[in-house]
Write a structure and sequence with these properties.
The protein is about 75% helix and about 0% strand. It contains 7 helices and no strands.
Length: about 140
């Protein structure tokens, strides 16, 4: 009985190599396919803010932060109340060491999440804003 259990538990992982780790080349190809898919979808519907956001996520995975920022900015242009896009844009600007923009979009995300009554996200954004303020030595007015 123990042998059967081990076979059922381990067997699929051996048969299906997709369950194991993938190499960087496979990862890169997968993300590039995602980017191409998002670009095709945007070409079909250029007013889809969610698709621009998803494109930004794909660019983030590839470390292409300028393209990531452009995608989030377009998502926000199409839907100015897109709180998650504001937050991700703040994080992307932080990666690019643009503290002023990171704080600006972080604050906007905080306001939008507050309006949506998403308190967990508000706390998450506030924690991140505290990190930004310390990191970029910003003095806040009380």
């Amino acid at each position: 009985m123990i042998i059967l259990t081990i076979t059922l538990w381990v067997g699929p992982a051996i048969i299906n190599s997709n369950l194991g780790e993938i190499g960087f080349d496979q990862f890169r190809k997968s993300i590039n396919r995602q980017i191409e898919g998002h670009l095709r979808s945007i070409e079909e519907d250029p007013l889809d803010a969610i698709e621009y956001f998803n494109l930004g996520l794909a660019y983030m995975a590839m470390g292409q932060h300028k393209e990531e920022v452009s995608s989030y900015l377009e998502a926000i242009r199409l839907d100015s109340n897109y709180a998650e896009a504001h937050f991700n844009l703040a994080m992307a600007y932080d990666i690019m060491r643009n503290g002023k923009a990171a704080i600006k979009y972080g604050k906007e995300a905080e306001v939008l999440y507050s309006k949506l009554r998403k308190h967990r996200q508000v706390r998450k954004v506030r924690r991140q804003l505290n990190i930004f303020h310390k990191k970029y030595k910003v003095i806040t007015k009380k």
